[in-house]
C-alpha cells in the first residue's frame, strides 16, 4: 500500500485544515486507517483511527471534539478535518494503514508525512 498525504500548511491558532491521504496499489476497503503525528523532539503518536467500513472511529483526548477522521473507500482516500488548531498541534502528520486490526501497534504502512505548523 502506498500512502500519500497532502494538505499540510502554516495556519494561525484557531484555524482549520483538512488533510488527505490517497492510497494506491491496493484498495483500502479492508484496512483500518489512522493518523499519527510527530512533533520535534517527541515520539510519534497515533491520535485518530477509523475502521475499514468507516462506522467506528477513535481519538485521543487531546484532539477529541476538534479533529474528525473520515474515509471515502470509493476514492481510496482518508481525510482528517482539523478545527480550532493550537500551537501544540504543530507536527509532521502521517497517514497509516493496518490490515489486521485497529490497534495503534498494528499500523505498518506509512506515508511520508505532511507538515502542519500552527503559529
Element pattern in H and E: EEEEEEEEEEE
Low-confidence stretches: none
Task: Give the termini distance in whole angstroms.
Answer: 33 Å
Question: So how many helices?
Answer: 0
Task: Provide the helix percentage.
Answer: under 10%
What's the β-strand tally?
11
Could you tell me the strand content as a percent range? over 45%
Structural class: mainly beta
Please give the radius of gyration in angstroms. Answer: 13 Å
Shape by Cα distribution: globular
Q: Mean pLDDT across all residues, rounded?
A: 96
Profile the largest sheet.
7 strands, mixed
Report what the structure shows.
With 119 residues, the protein is mainly β. 0% of the residues lie in helices and 49% in strands. The protein contains no helices and eleven strands. The strands form two sheets. Strands 2, 4, 5, 6, 9, 10 and 11 form a seven-stranded mixed sheet that branches. A four-stranded antiparallel sheet has the order 1-3-8-7, with no helix packed on it. Strand 5 and strand 6 form a beta hairpin. The protein starts with a strand and ends with a strand. The mean pLDDT is 96.
Amino acid at each position: 500500500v502506498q500512502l500519500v498525504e497532502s494538505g499540510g500548511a502554516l495556519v494561525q491558532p484557531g484555524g482549520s485544515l483538512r488533510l488527505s491521504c490517497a492510497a494506491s496499489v491496493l484498495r483500502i476497503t479492508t484496512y483500518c486507517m489512522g493518523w499519527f503525528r510527530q512533533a520535534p523532539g517527541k515520539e510519534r503518536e497515533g491520535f485518530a483511527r477509523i475502521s475499514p467500513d468507516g462506522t467506528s472511529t477513535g481519538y485521543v483526548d487531546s484532539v477529541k471534539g476538534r479533529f474528525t477522521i473520515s474515509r471515502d473507500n470509493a476514492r481510496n482516500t482518508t481525510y482528517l478535518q482539523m478545527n480550532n488548531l493550537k500551537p501544540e498541534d504543530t507536527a509532521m502528520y502521517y497517514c497509516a494503514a493496518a490490515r489486521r486490526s485497529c490497534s495503534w501497534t498494528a499500523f505498518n504502512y506509512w506515508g511520508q508525512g505532511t507538515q502542519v505548523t500552527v503559529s
